[in-house]
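**Folding the chain**
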Amino acid sequence: MTEAMTVELIIDAYWTMKGFWTRPRFSFQTEKGGWSDFDVIAHHPNRRILVVSESKARGHATDIFAFTPYTMKKYHCSSFADWESGPKNYLSFISNVPHIWEDNLIFESRKEFKNSVSKLILQLVSNYMITPELLSKGEESVRALFLREASSFPLNKSAIRANLTTPFDLFCEIQSMIIKEPQGRRYGNPILDLARELNRFLHPKVHYGGRGASESAKKENHGRFLKVLGIN
């Protein structure tokens, strides 16, 4: 299996924390004989939720793309899906999703797919920042794009959800979950264990240091962390 990239590991860790079974870099062969893959597949058998996640970032190391009312007006686009659909754009992965039930990639038959999935989430994790007032409409436009392209979808249309987010958002959610419910043992996942170590030093319980040692260490570590991030 091809080595997963860091963003894919963040996605994998996020859904793992949510109780999903995950598989990064799920490869499959297309009808033309070529090969493609889904960056992360996540499935929750009890809740019957299947997630197809795509990670994508273009540009230089510090580049973030914006989708705002200004973007829509300046470039005459009606929605995020209108702006980023196409064979080489951020939403190109959507055209591959029907292979899951048409070619029985994950489940052995279409019937098993229907028995195992009651909600399908199409997730794009990218370096796009969508303004809050456009996020819901943007996700609905992605959902509508999928429904136009996937005429053979075996479930009710209400089963489709779209999720547009960033690696930063996901890592912040991971960190928040670990802060709320810290685990004593290592997770055995590099992203979760990184978040666990950040939590250890940003929210420390200092032993053998005397009264006030925990608050002192917390203040010192917070200051140092903000400084190296260029925030303080």
About this structure: The first helix runs from residue 6 to 17.
